[in-house]
Design a protein that fits this description.
Two copies of one chain form a homodimer.
Chain A: E1 3-8, E2 13-18, H1 28-39, E3 53-57, E4 70-76, E5 83-89, H2 91-98, E6 101-107, E7 117-122, E8 125-130, H3 139-150, E9 156-160, H4 163-166, E10 174-177, E11 183-187, H5 192-198, E12 201-207, H6 219-235, H7 244-248, H8 253-259, H9 281-292, E13 313-314, E14 320-322, H10 327-333, H11 342-355, H12 359-371, H13 380-392, H14 395-401, H15 404-410, E15 418-419, E16 422-423, H16 433-441, H17 454-457, H18 473-489, H19 495-501, H20 503-517, H21 523-544, H22 556-559, H23 573-579
Parallel strand pairs in A: 1-6, 7-12
Antiparallel strand pairs in A: 1-2, 3-4, 3-6, 4-5, 7-8, 9-10, 9-12, 10-11, 13-14, 15-16
Helix pairs in contact in A: 1-18, 1-21, 6-19, 6-20, 10-12, 11-13, 12-15, 13-14, 16-18, 18-21, 18-23, 19-20
Chain lengths: ~575, ~575
Amino acid sequence: MQRILRVNMTDRTATFEEVPEKYRERAGRWLTSSIVASEVPPTCHPLGPENKLVISAGLTSGTSSPTSARVSVGGKSPLTGTIKESNAGTGFAHMLARLRIKSIIIEGQPKGAGKYWTLKVDKGGASFLPADQFVGMKLSEAYEKLFNEHGGLSHTSIMGIGVAGEYRLGAAGICFNDIKGRATRYSGRGGMGAVMGSKGLKFVIIDDTDGPGVEIANKELFDQGRKKLTDALMSHAITKPKGALNSYGTAVLVNIINEVGGLPTRNFRSGRFEGATKVSGEALFANNKERTGKEVYNHACSPGCVIQCSNTVYRPDGSEHMSCLEYESDWAFGPNCGIDDLDTVAELVNRCNEYGLDTIEVGGALAVAMDGGLAEFGDGKRALEIVNEIGKGTPLGRIIGSGAVTTGRAFGVNRVPAVKGQNMPAYEPRAIKGIGMTYAIGTMGADHTSGYTIATEVLGVAGKADPLNSNKAEMARNFQYATAFIDSSGHCLFIAFAILDIPSGFEGMLEECNGILGTSWTADDVGRIGKEVIDMERKFNRAAGFTKADDRLPEFMTYEPLPPHNAVWDITDEELDSILS
Amino acid sequence: MQRILRVNMTDRTATFEEVPEKYRERAGRWLTSSIVASEVPPTCHPLGPENKLVISAGLTSGTSSPTSARVSVGGKSPLTGTIKESNAGTGFAHMLARLRIKSIIIEGQPKGAGKYWTLKVDKGGASFLPADQFVGMKLSEAYEKLFNEHGGLSHTSIMGIGVAGEYRLGAAGICFNDIKGRATRYSGRGGMGAVMGSKGLKFVIIDDTDGPGVEIANKELFDQGRKKLTDALMSHAITKPKGALNSYGTAVLVNIINEVGGLPTRNFRSGRFEGATKVSGEALFANNKERTGKEVYNHACSPGCVIQCSNTVYRPDGSEHMSCLEYESDWAFGPNCGIDDLDTVAELVNRCNEYGLDTIEVGGALAVAMDGGLAEFGDGKRALEIVNEIGKGTPLGRIIGSGAVTTGRAFGVNRVPAVKGQNMPAYEPRAIKGIGMTYAIGTMGADHTSGYTIATEVLGVAGKADPLNSNKAEMARNFQYATAFIDSSGHCLFIAFAILDIPSGFEGMLEECNGILGTSWTADDVGRIGKEVIDMERKFNRAAGFTKADDRLPEFMTYEPLPPHNAVWDITDEELDSILS
């Protein structure tokens, strides 16, 4: 029997509850958004006592399903004011599922700020430990101490916030450990780390020792699905061993997106960066080979992932510098800040990991500040100094750490590439129209992962569309719905490459879900459930005060042509409003 | 024949246009809001090229009507994102009217930032002068230089921005000179100084030499009205010579509002300040008497004002320190920051005047930052240092200068007493319910001047209502409409005290308007016109993305009881939505 763990931080109590029948099939984003929509007042202050932080593993998490270790974190976002779900790949998901904890709901907040606690969850229940000794500490150091105190990686996983969450900054993410215990996997976007900080919660440590494991209604069907999905992932060019992701990581996209003229450069002033190849996944692979003396393929972020796309950056002396340098992080501090030195970019990302920050938002804010005259584009040394300020909590650090919109306000900049308060990630909507639709209509601000049309527009997955073609309303809609389903399934979104191109992989995913739940979902149910999730999130946002006027890209994109295509954003309001109407 | 002066800052052209027939009766706020609603795209970026800055004198400005020198400045606010009108009392209004310029519309913006211009307007037309030499200069020094260069006070008036407008900060106001040429009269709220700065416009200098003067359709009726209104102003206890305002200035309210428990103290943590008497208007009057050796009554901010409420603060040695210390400014840095030293408060306000800042927003932001741990409440020395940072444009200065909401974000504070992005002024809505309704439903964020129910709730004007009584929807509505009319009439809102209590004063105001326009407006037209203005502004806001969810007070006021009455904000959403529905 699964249970919900309800944690009240006002008086530090933790109680288990039965799972309401209506939530039986729900997991991941479907469940976090359901609980937030049901329990959080849409107009509440995101950092006040009425907001909640909701944690749920995906449906297939905790099983032997491939690439299924996604954990969703939901709440009302202090960055955007919308509902938020941000998921990460981490063993934490498996362990939560294996303890049969359907969701952890963190609510209330201590009277008076400054005290922090660790929530320890295991088979026996939940308890609170003081965490004040970790305040201000780098996350790598904190996680090492915590693993030493609470047991090894095989049965323990950590969710936590860094100084950014303590400062309650809009770019504060929530950090989970990766497969080696590194503090590097993030529910990064939307400032959920600030929500956690506002509740006086520094860490959640989970220990699944003797956990009962996931109940599977039809083991045979599940195994059949698992095998089909695994086969698809192991054979698709993007997801297979030594394929694109396993070789170069997500940073393989740098050259690809640059080639199509959609790599936002110097705060979205251009779609092409002359230094792109120097910060590409291929360059990283070549550097690593030279520095370590061997070809280094990537590793899994979490147990059971067969895609294994997490890269590692090595120093010139062959020692490990950091892991992982994702495409969007690489882009945020590289092309978007005009910086073409890969080691500098890796160190900028590394410091975000240490402070508990969303790299996309911080890189975006830094680029806006550079546009406002704070530093020269391309000045990596100054960029490092500025990111250090976030760690120190200086006024400048608090501006940048509050995200791009706040930074635009502070520096009087109106070229702020944000939607609903969240900075756009690494794909230029003027050059790649479908992703612009995704940014505009997404329930959580500009977010590539809410409908990754890049798959079709650039990578040729599930067909091929001209990036500059504007007729993509249906594509944008379908990606929204399919993504909401995958975000609930426990799978990494990267399974989409394989399941959209290989029908048996898609069948496999459904058979896994049906095997676990005893349901008979078909492809139609994927669309139905996806739509249900999106509709629910949109309803929350409407009640929070969002309107069609918020489903828009920033005005400057409509009148500033983007090199090299010199395209502007020209999708009409009517077309945008039709997508999810 | 009146004309509209349209100024394009992209290519620095200025052309006169005929006034459309529909605008014939409109002036002041009625006209600025009409032009903004008609010409500015509601979803545009307030600091982008599509926003406009619209300047209009009131209907009676430029005539011999008493207290009629209000000039309205309109546009889309960078602080709130709403439509904005902010008016100031200054000879500028008279001169604009006497040149028969119905409105100046500033549009476009230079490519690239950093160059500034002065627009010189006189009988011959309009011209542009370089203003780069004034960048970074204190406004008192700049205005002195400008008056020396462009002629004396009798025929010249200046509108300008300080460094805050150059930095495009959300708290940047637009400064007009007072009756002695001091740079102290402000269209302060909503960041209109940032809009002016975004257009590369540093000053507008007006010279009405040989201006044709205001056309008056029925001079006899006008004179009859003028006399009735003057008599009312000269006899009401609040507005008469040596009455409350003429003796103590608006700061007379400190003790009064403190007494009713509605003086927001230490970032709205209490409604009563133990140091209130030390920063009261009475204390200022007593200090001045002691320091100058005589009773100092107040002076007019602008020619023709009979209320004469502008006070002057003198130093211990009897020399002039600054003018004027309004109640809201006094409160913002005094009780709201826990500072009880009048000279320190006066100097804080003085620095805002020098930098071109809205004192309410800056004091509000400072209090939020103090609440977030930046400084101790009551630390005047540190407060002065922090306000200095705004002048220097440091990161901390940019946070505070961006207003309370941005400051709350930077310092992770959720006790931010703002509505639609604008900090509340000096009246606590939990203790004085009607003003809370005004804050909630106002079209421009929390703003006491949009419906000054304090007149009835506290001062006993037009009846008397218990401040804590919640049944004030009709009062709030009527004040909104009447205010929108007065803001269009050219009169200072302070005529309301007299015209609401003395029927002949109200008649006089109408006769003046009818005398000028040749209309036959009655009291019904006051309501009709006021409603038309409010409806137009609300329509703009709806199109900009505002909803009922924005017509709310901040959540913390619903659950934090306010001493001494320990009242919470308990007006229902339904009641708020009924007020202007």
